[in-house]
Structure formats: C-alpha cells, structure tokens
Amino acid sequence: MIQERRLAETFLSLVQIDSVSRNEAAVCQEIEKRLQALGAETFIDDSAAKTGSDTGNLIARFSGTVDIPSILLSAHMDTVEPGCGIRPVFENGYFRSDGSTILGADDKSAIAILLEALSVIQEDRIPHGPIECVLTVCEEIGLLGAKFLDIAKIRSRIGYVLDATDTHGIITRAPGANKLTYIVHGKDAHAGAAPEKGINAIAVACKAIAAIKLGRIDHETTCNIGIIQGGLATNIVPNKVVVKGEVRSHDPNKLEDITKIMTSAFEHAVQNTQPTPEEGTVPKLEAHIESDFVRTNIPDDHPVVKLAMAAAAELNIPLVTKTTGGGADANVFFSHDIITGVLGTGMKDMHTVRESVSMADMVEATRLLLGILRLHANRSY
C-alpha cells in the first residue's frame, strides 16, 4: 500500500539536499543508501570525468521474482538554479518553495515516486520482473549524464523516464535537435578614430540573424538564436562574435534543412561584407554543427505504450499519448534502442521559483508506476 506520509517525507528530504547540475554527489549518496536498504545492487559509473560532475550516474538493479526481461526506470538527480538552500512548504495539498528558490520537483518528485513504488513492491511482496533504475546527473545542462552513461551496462530494452508534468500523459514523440555555433571573425579598429579600418563582426552576425526566420517554423519544427557573445569595449570595433543557437524538429529532413538555411545565412552575410584594403582574409566564418539528441517516435502499438495504457485502464486513470517540443534522457536512451516513454509526476512551473507539485498527483503517478510493474510481471498487456 502506498504510504502518503512516507512519500511526502522522502520528497521533502530530497529537495533539501542541494544538487544543482555538476553538484549531485550528496543527493546521489542519499538515494543510493535508500536503494540499498530496499535490497538493490548499486554502482556509480565513471561518467563524472566527462560531465564535470562530482559524481557519476547512479545505477541500481533489483532481481526479479519473475523470469522476464528487465524494465528500466529513470529520473535525473540534478536541478537548475536557484537550487541551493531550498525551504519547501506544504500547503493546501501542494508542495512549493518559500519563493526564493525553485522547489526541485523537477526531478526529485520522480525520484520520490520511484522510491515509494519500490518500497511498496518489497513490502507487499508484489511479483515483478528485474528492475533497473538509472538516476542521471547533468540532465539540465544538455542530458550529459545520459549521453556519457556506459550504455553497455544497461540490460533493459524498454522502460520509462519520469520527467514530465502531465500524470495523464505518456510522451511518445519528442524532437531531435542540433546545436549550432557560429564564430564570425572581423577586424578590430578604433571606433572613433578609424572605424573604416575595421570590420564589425557583430554587425556581420546581425545581418545573418536578421535574415533567419526564428521561432516556430511549422507544427514540428523550431529554431532559436539564444546566445550572442562579442566585443571588448564600446570604442573598439569588435573583431569576433560567437553566436549560439539550436534547431529542433520531429522530422529529420526538416532538422537538416533548417540547419542548412541558418548556416547559409551566416555564410551569405560574411561573403557579402567587403574586406578592408589592408586585410583580405576577413571577415570569415567558423560554423560548428553538433547533434544534441535524436528524436523519439514510439508507435502506439509498441509494448511500452500498451503496457502503460493497460495499467492506466486497470486503475481508471485516463492516459493519452503526447507530443512534446522538449528533449529528455529518453531521447538518448532511444538512440541506443532502449525504448522509453516519458511519464508525468504532476510538477508544474518548473525552472521557476513558482514551481509546485501536488501530493495527489504524486500518489497517482506512484499508482500508475506500480500498475505498470505489476502488468509487466505477468505480461498481460
């Protein structure tokens, strides 16, 4: 039986342990201790050297009472800023912070739900297959923990990531994304005494950006310029500017096409800027395109979807498949042929000091997870 008080106490305890990205060691140790108390075999991978975190990803395994393939359950341990010194408040059925920080429900509500479900399984002796829990680091700064996870250590081929809002939805479609970095090189000069001897790198970049349609391109594609860094002083013609952006799309061809369009805009702006007489090698462009994550696209008849739907129906919980514009660790797992749907915990207004999660939603998410594990054990879906 789900113990609401224990679930609440677990959540309150976890959110009060600071774990901003790259500083997850303390919360990792606490979660590992709790998982070991439930009988899990645990280990921490060596991803820290690549993520820059003070710990690796935490992996826990529970032997099954039923001989079937294992199932993956995953959440992330890190939070965004301002995430230190969180003082949680519980009022009218909702958890919030005191307003000076985030709450950390993203994603510690998920971890609390996982721990409660695993506790109930042990206490009530519920038959279950082998379970793998993967608690990642540095999700909030580019899915880094998942990207550098030693995937060879993961045995599951299906699973669920708990990292969404809607407890009545399972995310089955998420976009792929490219990260774009454009470095425009110009020429420095005194902005007052001899501006004609310089080439303003920022001005060149601005011409490129002005030629690009940003925002929503269509129902499945977006692009954005999010960072512009350049210049040393107002009296110096800037000789370098760095522009960073992204493209996302559910269609791989559109992802490639919009990426090319954005790059072409920068190439055109550079090519159409006249060099100074003294310097014919500038302006010039460096373009760096990197795949951030691949799209996920899980058919409605896939076992991951059918299992969740069957469990929800049995519990009279309405559940629908959903499409999102965001990425999650599930995108990384998907690229390794580990098909993971994304389930919600009820968290709202994430990444703000207004973040909240309701007790009722956390209980319902725990019920659904328990239902999934029960049905997985007897494969009645």
Task: Summarize the structure in words.
Helices cover 32% and strands 27% of the residues. It is of the alpha+beta class and 381 residues long. The protein has two domains: 4-174 and 295-378, Zn peptidases (Aminopeptidase, 3-Layer(aba) Sandwich), CATH 3.40.630.10; 176-293, Alpha-Beta Plaits. The strands form three sheets. Strands 1, 2, 3, 6, 7, 8, 14, 15 and 16 form a nine-stranded mixed β-sheet that branches. The chain has a five-stranded antiparallel β-sheet with strand order 10-11-12-9-13. It has a three-stranded antiparallel β-sheet with strand order 4-5-17. The chain is elongated and about 80 Å long. The mean pLDDT is 96.
Number of helices: 10
Roughly how much helix do the residues carry, as a percent range?
A: 25-40%
Low-confidence stretches: none
Mean pLDDT: 96
- Superfamily (CATH H level) name of the largest domain: Zn peptidases
Q: What is the helix/strand order?
A: HHEHEEEEHEHEEEHEEEHEEHEHEEH
Task: Please name the defining characteristics of this protein.
alpha+beta, 2 domains, single chain, 381 residues, five-stranded antiparallel sheet, Aminopeptidase, nine-stranded mixed sheet, 27% strand, Alpha-Beta Plaits
Topology of this structure?
Layout: H1 4-15, H2 25-37, E1 41-44, H3 48-51, E2 58-62, E3 71-76, E4 88-91, E5 94-97, H4 105-123, E6 131-136, H5 144-147, E7 158-164, E8 169-174, E9 176-185, H6 201-210, E10 215-218, E11 221-230, E12 240-249, H7 252-271, E13 284-293, E14 296-297, H8 303-314, E15 320-323, H9 329-335, E16 339-344, E17 356-358, H10 359-378
Parallel strand pairs: 3-6, 3-7, 7-16, 8-15
Antiparallel strand pairs: 1-2, 2-6, 4-5, 5-17, 8-14, 8-16, 9-12, 9-13, 10-11, 11-12
Helix pairs in contact: 1-4, 4-10, 6-7, 8-10
